[in-house]
Write a structure and sequence with these properties.
The structure is a single chain. This protein is an alpha+beta fold. The chain contains four helices and three strands; from the N terminus they run αβααββα. Strands 1-2-3 form a three-stranded mixed sheet. The longest helix has 9 residues. The C terminus is likely disordered.
């Protein structure tokens, strides 16, 4: 994900795009809420969209923290 994001930034025709990572709700809970992914959310410019695959509904939108965007 981070490598792809960096490649987009270096591409003149895509440098204004924002990359989002979509994850299923159980993955978010196990990896980003309770697991090692929590460190990634705290330290990177990661934007997440958490969704329920069964209902095809977005459950949560997690923008980068204020310190990550600067």
């Amino acid at each position: 994900f981070l490598l792809y994001e960096e490649a987009l930034k270096r591409s003149p025709e895509n440098d204004d795009r924002i990359l989002l990572l979509a994850v299923r709700q159980p993955i978010y809970v196990s990896l980003f809420e309770n697991g090692i992914g929590k460190i990634l959310l705290e330290s990177q410019r990661l934007q997440l969209v958490v969704f329920d695959a069964d209902t095809e509904e977005i459950k949560q939108w997690i923008p980068p923290t204020a310190t990550q965007t600067s």
